[in-house]
Design goal:
The chain contains two helices and ten strands. The chain has about 170 residues and is mostly beta strands. It has one domain: Porin (Beta Barrel), CATH 2.40.160.20. A hairpin with a 5-residue loop joins β3 and β4. The longest helix is centred in the N-terminal third of the chain and has 11 residues. The two termini are about 35 Å apart. About 20% of the residues are buried.
Length: about 170
């Protein structure tokens, strides 16, 4: 083993090895959406979802998502939806937090028809994963600016429900 390879191995030996990522439940978010604005572009199909409102409830964060934010979803020719969420959260104690999230969504081939029929797409039939980021200047919530979070979602007609985890 070369000296460089030995240094790399020694560096990695300092890191914990996890079969499961250490995380704690951060909050759940229940988002009500206006019907999608759907149109084709040269990059794929755009589905713009505007937030009517949302409840944020959990052990580390409580409040609401203010109306006017949204998800500017782009579905490519590969069938993968690329999430682009931006909104403002207001906490239960009146702090404002910029919320931004990217991620991917895949649904079954009949998923859009099932959503149109007001069916909830079960978690085990979809892949809805997001990476939320937070930005605030409120002293009470500055710690949010420096965390990594992961979200899992469940889709239904004009609604998405997320469970957000803080990666430790």
């Amino acid at each position: 083993m070369t000296a460089v390879a030995a240094q790399r191995t020694a560096a990695l030996d300092q890191l914990p090895h996890h079969d499961r990522l250490p995380a704690e439940h951060f909050f759940d978010m229940h988002v009500e959406l206006q019907p999608a604005q759907l149109f084709s572009t040269t990059l794929g199909t755009r589905l713009t979802f505007i937030v009517d409102g949302a409840v944020v409830d959990g052990p580390r964060l409580r409040g609401e998502m203010l109306p006017g934010g949204g998800d500017w979803l782009l579905v490519g020719s590969d069938g993968v939806g690329r999430v682009d969420i931006r909104a403002t959260l207001r906490t239960h104690d009146d702090a404002l937090i910029h919320f931004e999230s990217r991620g991917v969504i895949t649904i079954p081939a009949d998923g859009l028809d099932r959503l149109a029929a007001a069916e909830v797409l079960p978690f085990d039939e979809t892949y809805v994963r997001t990476t939320p980021k937070f930005e605030t200047g409120d002293e009470r919530y500055l710690w949010l600016n420096g965390i990594v979070a992961l979200g899992y979602g469940v889709l239904s007609q004009n609604r998405v429900d997320y469970r957000i985890y803080h990666l430790l």
